[in-house]
């Protein structure tokens, strides 16, 4: 089987990084696949990336609802969601 083109970049000294994170990428195994099959070496994130992940999917709705009912404000909710996803991605 021919080696993946992205993995071939590693032989040239390049590291593939993903500037994106979303919960289903982690929970559905896509992140693991990207690491194993495509040679993904790292990920970056920032508030804008999380805003897109949270606002443009329903993946976070249950957690947002629960934390809201627990009296958490928007900053606390954001921090909890983003920290949870980063920690999960790092495992």
Task: Give a structural overview.
- The chain has 91 residues and is mostly helical.
- It has one domain (5-90).
- It is 62% helix and 8% strand.
- It has 6 helices and 2 strands.
- The chain has helices at 5-11, 23-27, 30-38, 47-55, 61-69, 74-90, and strands spanning 16-18, 40-43.
- Strands 1-2 form a two-stranded parallel ribbon.
- It starts with a helix and ends with a helix.
Which features characterize this protein?
two-stranded parallel ribbon; single chain; mainly alpha; 91 residues; elongated; 62% helix
Characterize this entry briefly.
The chain is 62% helix and 8% strand. It has 91 residues and is mostly helical. Strands 1-2 form a two-stranded parallel sheet.
- Compute the number of structural domains: 1
| Low-confidence spans | none
Task: Indicate the proportion of strand residues.
Answer: 5-15%
Count of DSSP strands: 2
Given the C-alpha coordinates, what overall shape results? elongated
Average of the residue pLDDT scores:
92
**Widest sheet, order of strands:** 1-2
Q: Helicity level, as a percent range?
A: 55-70%
Number of helices: 6
Structural class: mainly alpha
The Cα radius of gyration reads: 16 Å
Give the H and E element order.
Answer: HEHHEHHH
For the terminal residues, how far apart are their CA atoms? 29 Å
Question: What does the main sheet amount to?
Answer: 2 strands, parallel
Give the oligomeric state of the chains in this entry, treating copies of one chain as homo and distinct chains as hetero: single chain
């Amino acid at each position: 089987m021919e080696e993946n083109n992205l993995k071939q970049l590693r032989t040239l000294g390049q590291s593939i990084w993903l500037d994106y994170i979303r919960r289903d990428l982690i929970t559905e195994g896509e992140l693991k696949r990207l690491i194993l099959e495509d040679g993904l070496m790292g990920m970056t994130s920032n508030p804008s990336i999380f805003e897109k992940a949270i606002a443009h999917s329903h993946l976070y709705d249950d957690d947002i609802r629960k934390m809201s009912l627990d009296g958490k404000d928007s900053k606390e909710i954001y921090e909890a969601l983003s920290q949870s996803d980063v920690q999960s991605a790092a495992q």
